Amino acid sequence: EIREGQVRNFERWSSTRPPGDRSGVEFNGGDDTWEGEVVHLKGWLSARVDWMDDQFVTQPSIENPGNIASGASVVVRDGGTLFSPQEAWYSADGSDPRLPGGEVSPTAIKAGKNLTPADSVNIIMRAKRDDQWSGPIKTAIVVDGELATSENLLVTEIMYHPRDGQISEEAVGFFHEDLFEFIELTNVSDTPVSLEGVAFTDGITFNFQESNQQMLAPGERLVIVSDDQAFAARYGADTPIAGEFVGQLSNAGEKLTLQRGEELLHEFAYNDRAPWPETPDQFGFSLALSSAK
Description:
The protein is of the alpha+beta class and 293 residues long. Helices cover 15% and strands 29% of the residues. The protein contains 4 helices and 21 strands. The strands form 5 sheets. Strands 2, 4, 5, 7, 8 and 9 form a 6-stranded mixed beta sheet that branches. Strands 18-17-12-11-21 form a 5-stranded mixed beta sheet, with no helix packed on it. The longest helix is centred in the first third of the chain and has 21 residues, at 34-54. The protein is extended.
């Protein structure tokens, strides 16, 4: 009906006919019909989105990170092209290879076409084109390691109901008790453990795929926290922080679920009443795993 009606419409109101000639910018081959205008608009919008994407530096990529054998290499793609070359820079110490202001961090390493790490490493990588940077990618290369299982990765400590902020903490803006919550995980095995696909999905939510810390060395611990600055103010900066979780730990107890993809790693419920210890309930103590066995 529209196809038939458009002819009469443009005959009656000729000034509304879509221009067939847009000085070479048309995307419809000069078609001045209603269908041609739709084709032109679709083409214009697609070209506009492509132009917007071109204003950003393409992120680099690492092919098949994760678990590799000792001496093996992974391929690095810097995201550049022949006409728009880029450089890939990465850090292996948990810091950003880009300093505030845009300079290259003194601890950053310029990536070649391949990476052959001697040991397992957490990586943050960005691409650089002139003075512009891409967004970061975060991953881990685990040498002779394992994926996380219910045996090698344990939840070893939960601070679910901390004390309120103390005077010194309140002075820097940390008032509420919830800010000091954390959960600690530990690699209790003798090999590095990849956190690929690991996530808390119930109680609180946190996906290690978005974390600066995606690998744990043998015996290494990390925490996910309610607020990273509050955690550092109270507990110090020695423990690696993987990131901030979404939600809050229930002061009265709740179920927590840790998964790797669809595989259930741990699911348990804690409580603030006997037979559970009662001192972690805002008395300054945490709930700690008594044994890894």
